[in-house]
Amino acid sequence: MTDLNSIPALTEEELERLGTLLEEEAERNDSFDFFAVHGFITGLLTGPAGPAGIDAQVLWDCAFEAQTGFSKAERQDVDTLMQQLAKEIQAWLDSGQDFPVPADLTLVDDENEPPIESWAMGFMSAVLLNEESWYADREEVVAQHLFPIMYASGLFMDEPEMADIDEDPDLSDRMCGNIPAAVVELYLMMHGAA
């Protein structure tokens, strides 16, 4: 059992700095916001490649436009803070505790794009990067655990079963509420700790 106090967490100031820089860039270039970056890193670490999947260039290529609006110093800050965030997420995954998704687990009654939708879209972007490895020889069980994240991402809203969930706010909340446990199950499955 991991001592949760030993998890290398970003300070409030660091989180605020990263969130602000990502938000400003998302408004400039329609790139990933903080929640999508967090979800993407979580997906990369949860997936078959694990920590080896965190390639700084892949992260940049998926999260941002080729030409960002960051100054050189801001880019360095974002890079450093994202690497620290990856260490924090990895420590949580290794802890065996419920995974702390940094957003309310609901899509209901939220204006604009709810943070959980952005987080789930980031996570699914990591899955889609390496889909064959994710599903490999266990397609059905992986799909089952991914389902709540797929639902929350909004990427599959045209599927009839997703529309059915959308029509029932309680079911929608229950589905989103399954996400932290789903992340843990997927991580254990991919990394043989179950």
Automatic annotation (TrEMBL):
This is YecA family protein. NCBIfam families: ygfB_yecA. Pfam families: UPF0149 (PF03695).
